[in-house]
């Protein structure tokens, strides 16, 4: 098994050599720009991990791995338009560097290119791989729509929130691993277990992000702490606070959520309420629950523990990260 860092280097090299047309320039330059931004390449690396776990040929998984990465960046490009975000990975977003119409069309082209790359597998595997990819692509869009819907909704349950982050974030991690497993010829049972492992890690990953946004180390986090609080974003922490707050606590929460001024005071007040109601520990318990479920699925896969160690280490690193 290759180390995660080695697989990332392989993906980076292939991304740099990805064949794209050169004209019209305003269609293809934004795609090259988007793919050149500094990235962890987590999803394509998981495709390769899923393949190698079952002794598959990495060369047969490379193009679908790139397909997953192109698709992921397509979603980010369109998310940036919807969020009117000025920066992506500390660089101007495509719609800022060019314009919204260019960004939409370049994103559409990226989706088609992703489909082309996903289809570059053995003929006997095309149907399975593409059915999984199309199912996942729709789920990601559903998750994004739910996230936008939640901005206008007064009452969102934790169950609805978990469903949203599962679709928006987690299913693509599961699909990445399962794609590699299918290419390698894994049994359906093992392919399903690796999918559930990735999905559960994805949910835990997002819950960790919720926690870090409020309680992360200032020097290591690298951006404004409490951004979710300022934006009234419905995270696990806020939804759990809604559940638990009563009396004066509920009135204070309502007051600060209706305030757009005094950002630092708002962050401090709501963070104090989180601490009083112990929601950080509750969020960590929920995160740990999904992490344990993920490891149970990994343990159930019919390969040696030595082979599984790479993915186990990957999962553990995600959970202890401070940024």
Descriptive terms for the model:
two-stranded antiparallel ribbon; mainly alpha; globular; 323 residues
Rough outline: globular
Biggest sheet descriptor: 2 strands, antiparallel
Order of helices and strands: HHHHEEHHHHHHHHHHHH
Radius of gyration, taken over Cα atoms and rounded to an integer in Å: 20 Å
Q: Poorly predicted ranges (pLDDT <50, ≥5 residues)?
A: none
What proportion strand?
A: under 5%
* Average pLDDT reading: 94
Compute the number of strand runs.
2
Q: How many separate helices? A: 16
Q: Which oligomeric state applies?
A: single chain
Structural class: mainly alpha
Percentage of residues in helical conformation: over 70%
Strand arrangement in the largest pleated sheet: 1-2
From the N-terminal CA to the C-terminal CA, the straight-line distance is 27 Å
Description:
The protein is an all-alpha fold and 323 residues long. It is 77% helix and 1% strand. The protein has 16 helices and two strands. β1 and β2 (91-92) form a beta hairpin.
Topology record:
Layout (H helix, E strand, L loop, with lengths): L3 H13 L8 H12 L5 H12 L4 H26 L3 E2 L2 E2 L1 H4 L2 H19 L4 H30 L5 H27 L3 H28 L2 H4 L5 H4 L5 H9 L3 H10 L5 H15 L1 H21 L5 H16 L3
Antiparallel strand pairs: 1-2
Helix pairs in contact: 1-3, 2-6, 3-4, 3-8, 4-6, 4-7, 4-8, 7-8, 8-9, 9-15, 12-15, 13-14, 15-16
In short:
This protein has helices at residues 4-16, 25-36, 42-53, 58-83, 94-97, 100-118, 123-152, 158-184, 188-215, 218-221, 227-230, 236-244, 248-257, 263-277, 279-299, 305-320; strands at 87-88, 91-92. The protein is mainly α and 323 residues long. The model has no long low-confidence stretch (mean pLDDT 94).
């Amino acid at each position: 098994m290759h180390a995660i860092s080695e697989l990332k280097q392989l993906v980076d090299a292939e991304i740099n050599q990805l064949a794209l047309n050169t004209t019209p320039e305003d269609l293809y330059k934004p795609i090259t720009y988007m793919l050149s931004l500094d990235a962890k390449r987590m999803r394509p690396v998981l495709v390769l991990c899923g393949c190698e776990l079952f002794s598959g040929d990495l060369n047969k998984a490379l193009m679908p791995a790139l397909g997953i990465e192109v698709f992921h960046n397509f979603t980010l490009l369109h998310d940036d338009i919807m969020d009117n975000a000025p920066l992506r990975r500390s660089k101007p977003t495509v719609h800022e560097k060019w314009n919204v119409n260019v960004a939409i069309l370049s994103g559409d082209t990226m989706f088609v290119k992703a489909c082309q790359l996903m289809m570059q597998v053995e003929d006997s595997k095309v149907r399975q791989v593409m059915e999984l990819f199309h199912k996942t692509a729709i789920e990601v869009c559903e998750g994004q729509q739910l996230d936008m819907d939640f901005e206008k909704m007064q009452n969102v349950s934790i169950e609805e929130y978990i469903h949203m982050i599962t679709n928006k974030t987690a299913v693509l991690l599961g699909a990445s691993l399962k794609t590699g497993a299918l290419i390698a010829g894994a049994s359906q049972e093992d392919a399903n277990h690796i999918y559930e492992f990735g999905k559960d890690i994805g949910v835990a990953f997002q819950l960790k992000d919720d926690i870090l946004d409020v309680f992360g180390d200032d020097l290591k986090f690298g951006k404004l702490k409490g951004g979710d609080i300022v934006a009234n974003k419905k995270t696990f922490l806020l939804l759990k606070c809604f559940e638990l707050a009563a009396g004066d606590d509920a009135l204070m929460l309502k007051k600060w959520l209706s305030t757009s001024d005094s950002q630092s005071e708002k962050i401090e007040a709501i963070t104090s309420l989180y601490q009083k109601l112990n929601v950080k520990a509750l969020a960590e318990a929920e995160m740990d629950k999904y992490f344990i479920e993920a490891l149970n699925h990994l343990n159930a896969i019919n390969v040696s523990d030595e082979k599984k160690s790479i993915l186990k280490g990957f999962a553990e690193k995600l959970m202890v990260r401070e940024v």
